[in-house]
Every structure is written in C-alpha cells, then in structure tokens.
Automatic annotation (TrEMBL):
Domain Thioesterase TesA-like span(s) in chain numbering: 30-251
Organism this protein belongs to: Streptomyces incarnatus
InterPro entries in UniProt: AB_hydrolase_fold, TEII, TesA-like, Thioesterase
Protein name: Oleoyl-ACP hydrolase
A Pfam family reported for this protein in Swiss-Prot or TrEMBL: Thioesterase
Keyword Transmembrane helix listed: no
Similarity comment text for this entry: Belongs to the thioesterase family.
Molecular function (Gene Ontology), one example: hydrolase activity
First and last residue of the signal peptide: none
Keywords linked to the UniProt accession: Hydrolase, Plasmid
Residue spans crossing the bilayer: none
Length: 252
C-alpha cells in the first residue's frame, strides 16, 4: 500500500497542468481526475474551453511524470495539499470540477476555501455519490485480478493499459491508492457550502444511483442542479459535447 503522508515533498508546481494556457480568461476551472486517472484526462476540456476559460488540471502524485512520488490514499490529505497549491488562482472567479474520486476531492477543496472566505463560483461533481450516501465498499483490499476486473467493469482505464502487463504493473499502485481514498472517505459534518453545485451523472452508472447523485443537494445551500446523461460511469467520454455545453452555461 502506498504511503499517504508525503504530499508536501512534491516539487512546487507539480500538481497543476495547463494544457491550453489562457492567462487573460475571465474565469478559471480547476479539474480533479478520477481514481487511477491523471491530468491528461482533461486535455479535451482545456482545448474546448480556451481561451474563454483558463483550465487547470490536477496531477496527483504516483502517476505519469509523478510516478516516483508516494501516492496519497486519503481524500482529506489530498484536499489539504491542493488548497495550498491552487490558492493563488482566486484572483478571478474559480470553479471546480471533479469526476468520481475527483468529485470528493473537489468538494473537500471547496469546503476548505469557503472556510477561508473564498467561495468558488461553481462546484461540478460528476460520477460520484453524495458524501452523505455512504456504501461499504472494499475493492481496494482485493487482489490485483479482482481490482483489474472492477476497473474493466467501470471502463475507466485505457484498454491499452490493461493489455500491457508492464504498464499495468506501474499503474496498479496508484489505482489501488485512489480506490482506498474513495472507499475510506467519510464526510466530516459541517455547514453546507454556499456556492452553486451541479451534479452530473450517467443514467446507467453502476456506482451511483440517481437518488445518490440527487443527495448532493444536501451539501450546498446555494442553487443545485442535477444533469443526467446517457451512459455509465464514464458517460462523459461519449457525451463530451453535451457535458461541455452544460459547463459553458454555468461558467457564464
């Protein structure tokens, strides 16, 4: 199991990627990847929204160019580290978007910023149950074959990665750490957010029912909206155009 307490050892700036820099954009969108994912997942979002939106994608330790750094297997520790990394972004309106595990990280980052008096323009949570909708899941404790089976079921990892034993061996530690982060996450009671919150989900997602997605409304006193798209856990691959349209509408 990867270590979970060495986030501050990363080089400054290692957390944030800008694939289409838009320094003069009136708005910023910070994107948080799913479990096992990386910042490059959001390249299409950066391409589509620039130059009107400055898109920042988060690179967690333990993958791609950060593969030699210890993984962080706690949503709360990830959020603690990320607040320090992106606090300088609030010189203009900032929205947060997270998919799957990334939705929990984005939510906890939003909570920490609101505690500092910095309210995000919008929080987008995708493919994830509300923090109050807890399931007892322990996939992170299973052996490698069972873990790969679950990844395949969700279709969340490139098939080329699953087919290449060497690449898969390199990726499994970060995937397992992310599964542990998501499955052991427990919501700490506190005041609801004040920012608008939009939940997005696929209508055939095995990990999120519509009621579990709708329960995100409990976590913000601001306006709430639920967007349901055709598809499973990674509905946003096939529904990219519709998802981007929804983002643009809220970011305006």
């Amino acid at each position: 199991m990867a270590a979970s307490t060495t986030s501050t050892h990363a080089a400054r700036g290692a957390w944030v990627r800008r694939f289409r820099p838009a320094p003069d954009a009136p708005h910023r969108l910070v994107c948080f990847p799913h479990g096992g994912g990386s910042a490059s997942f959001f390249v299409p979002v950066a391409r589509a929204l620039a130059p009107g939106v400055d898109v920042l994608a988060i690179q967690y330790p333990g993958r791609q160019d950060r593969r030699h750094e210890p993984c962080i297997d706690s949503v709360h520790l990830l959020a603690d580290a990320l607040v320090e990394e992106v606090r300088g972004c609030f010189d203009r309106p900032v929205s947060l978007f997270g998919h799957s595990m990334g939705a929990l990280v984005a939510y906890e980052v939003a909570r920490r910023f609101e505690q500092r008096g910095q309210v995000p323009h919008q929080l987008f949570v995708s493919g994830q149950r509300a923090p109050s909708a807890v399931r007892d899941e322990r996939v992170h404790l299973l052996d490698d074959d069972a873990l790969i089976e679950d990844i395949t079921r969700l279709s969340g990892t490139d098939s080329q990665v699953l087919a290449d034993p060497e690449i898969l061996r390199m990726a499994l530690p970060s995937i397992r750490a992310d599964y542990r982060a998501a499955e052991t996450y427990r919501h700490v009671p506190g005041p609801p957010l004040s920012c608008p919150l939009t939940a997005l989900t696929g209508d055939d997602d095995p990990g999120v029912t519509l009621d579990e997605a709708r329960a995100w409304a409990e976590h913000s006193a601001g306006p709430f909206d639920l967007k349901v798209f055709p598809g499973g856990h990674f509905y946003l691959d096939a529904q990219q155009s519709a998802v981007l349209t929804a983002l643009r509408a809220r970011l305006r």
